Amino acid sequence: MEIQDYLRILQSRWKIIAITTVVAILGALGASLMTTPIYEASTRLFVSTSAGSSVNEVYQGNLFSQQRVTSYTKLLTGETLAQRTIDKLDLGGTAAALASQVKASSAPDTVLIDVKVQDPSPERARDIANALSDEFVVMARELETPEKGGAPAARVVVEQQAQTPSTPVSPKTLRNLALGAAVGLLLGIAFAVLRDRLDNTVKDRRTVEELAGSALIGTIPFDKERQTQQAINFAEGNSSSAEAYRELRTNLQFLEVDNPPRVIVVTSSLPTEGKTTTAINIALVLAEGGQNVCLVEGDLRKPRVSKYLGVVGSVGLSSVLAGKADLDAVLQPTQYTGLTVLASGPIPPNPSELLGTETARQVLADLRGRFDYVIVDASPLLPVTDATVLTAMSDGALVIARHAETKRDQLSRAVGNLHSVGATILGTIITMTPSRGRGVYEYKYYYDTDKSLPQMQPAAPAQPPVPQPAPQHQAPQPAPQQQAQYVRDEYPPQPYGGDPQEVPAYQGAPAYQGDQGQQWYGTPDHYGNEQQSGAPMPTAPRRTRRYRDDQEPWSETDAPRDHTQ
């Protein structure tokens, strides 16, 4: 295994590692809480010899004291001293049990001895340490005094009395938690690697391509909505599932550019791997791309297409193969544009024999001539041979494998069944992949609608023309007098210095906007002639009116000036 493999395991099996670590930490915490607290009291003893009169004698006395220190540490943890301490304090228990609670140590090249006593009670630990030290002073004097009397060769002095400890020395909760976390992490990694080695399901591209011997052309993410609504509405669908099928459509169309497959069987190793849902949505996504698609319900044992798409399933492929209906009579259009369904029909007693007839081959050939694509939802490969028979008559098969459910040996056996009849495997598809994780693309980010931008409203359906009542002969009514709309004259200033003025527009003529060749169109025209409906408007000279430069009101004597272009 390479480093990338271990990283993949850590990423995919992180739950095992996390659970194991948490369990180890909780175990360490529980052990700490259940352990009886132990307190420790300590005293310090000083060992000395009689001072000499010379430097050499002092040096020899020091060496003698250091040698005695080593021996005294053994005596302090012995049962003899422990029994004398028990007798002094009137303690229960045995001398061996008390001796196990005593620790004595000394630093190298010193004459100091540290005595430590541990006990569940802090007061008793203090009393035992002090009593033990006092008894050892007496015991050392007895041992170092000659039999004939005289001064002892060495003496022991209690240099420091024991105090009542305030905090326990055991258990050390923080240390136990850290140790539990480290042990749990190591065990979790070991369990994750072991679990991955023992897992024989397909979960990645490399495994699927090695077992199937063909390229992986699509991965379909897990979508809870597909459990209740198997067909995706691609006209409104921009989910990750919809985009995955669009990518699958692109890969399918470029499998063989010169001779693309048109009759495609969709199958799987075992049921419940998403075969039927995948076949339905492949047909829908091809229809969305403008193709004329026929979806054939080729699973004559456990049909589901007619149920999922809401078409009649009582007549269909088995009816045609048995000679009880014509193909034209059983092809059913659906609510989806470009998609036609050929249902399974009544379930026959011998589906494999019925699908292997020459009539079935002729039906597929006839559908090939009528439609751009024929998608056949076939039975699983391992339980029955129906899919193998259909694949031999088609351009190839798409093999479905469910992520972390289809086992490697199952996929290998299914592919072997197809190869045994010389069928073509166009590609493999992994369904129900995790929606999050390594190698998963989030399509939704690119297809979310920006609500801040103007939204296109759907076109209203065309309404039939409302019939108009027959015209009745009426006396012509005079045209209503319209208020003249003033527009700005866009002519350049006049030689006499007049500025452009606002002028009234003629009845029926639009307000002038910009330079449009300075043409005016209206009904009636500027000469009072009515225009025929639909007739081109002749170019007419533009007539404008001005107020007089002296700002006098308009009068009938002021004739309008004509400007002809």
UniProtKB/TrEMBL annotation:
Here the segments flagged for biased composition (Low complexity) are: 471-485
User: EC number(s) for this protein?
Assistant: 2.7.10.2
Q: Which Pfam families does the record cross-reference, listed alphabetically?
A: AAA_31, Wzz
Recorded superkingdom: Bacteria
Q: Which Gene3D superfamilies match?
A: P-loop containing nucleotide triphosphate hydrolases (3.40.50.300)
* Key words, A-Z: ATP-binding, Cell inner membrane, Cell membrane, Kinase, Membrane, Nucleotide-binding, Transferase, Transmembrane, Transmembrane helix, Tyrosine-protein kinase
Spell out the reaction equation it catalyses: L-tyrosyl-[protein] + ATP = O-phospho-L-tyrosyl-[protein] + ADP + H(+)
Localization (cell): Cell inner membrane
Annotated region (Disordered) at 454-565
Which GO terms of the cellular component aspect does the record hold?
plasma membrane
Where in this chain does the record put each Polysaccharide chain length determinant N-terminal domain?
A: 2-89
Q: Does the keyword ATP-binding apply?
A: yes
A Gene Ontology molecular-function term?
Answer: ATP binding
Which positions, given as ranges, span the membrane?
16-39
Report the family membership. Answer: Belongs to the etk/wzc family.
Protein name as annotated: non-specific protein-tyrosine kinase
Q: Which organism's genome codes for this protein?
A: Rhodococcus opacus (strain B4)
Classification from the root reads: Bacteria, Bacillati, Actinomycetota, Actinomycetes, Mycobacteriales
